TrEMBL record:
Keywords: Nucleus. GO terms for cellular component: spliceosomal complex. This is Splicing factor SF3a60 binding domain-containing protein. It comes from the Eukaryota. The lineage of its organism: Eukaryota, Metazoa, Ecdysozoa, Arthropoda, Chelicerata. It comes from Amblyomma americanum. GO terms for biological process: mRNA splicing, via spliceosome. Its main location: nucleus. Signal peptide: none annotated. GO terms for molecular function: RNA binding.
Length: 125
């Protein structure tokens, strides 16, 4: 249901959150070797996700199929209000068809990472 521009925005947000999580992870004091090893594993996972988001963004910006260019043209064309209302109708229709669909915000996942860092006695992932 997401448009290409919304996907790009989401990937940029995720990359920023990943960098923030990596920074917090590296600055957090580790008192034992076990905490250091677990921290290194978390950093590797965060780095892998960052690289995955980056490669996906690169593919979206290359716009091989021309969909991004079409979407930008539709939003900036002479009928931008008609385009806006047609997209709004599509969103309302989607939510009418799927009323119980749950979307977990990205911030929840990163809050769980922060909790895992603050409570090293509990196992993560």
């Amino acid at each position: 249901m997401e448009t290409l521009l919304e996907q790009q925005r989401r990937y940029h947000e995720e990359r920023e959150r990943l960098i923030d999580a990596q920074t917090k992870e590296m600055l957090h004091k580790k008192s034992t070797n076990r905490e250091q090893i677990n921290s290194d594993h978390r950093l590797k996972i965060l780095l892998d996700r960052y690289m995955e988001c980056t490669s996906t963004l690169k593919e979206l910006y290359e716009d091989r199929d021309g969909l991004r260019k079409e979407e930008i043209a539709a939003l900036s064309g002479p009928n931008e209000f008609a385009e806006f209302y047609s997209r709004l109708r599509a969103i309302k229709e989607f939510h009418r068809k799927h009323p119980n669909e749950i979307q977990v915000p990205m911030s929840v996942e990163f809050d769980e990472l922060n909790k895992a860092r603050e409570n090293p006695s509990e196992e993560m992932m």
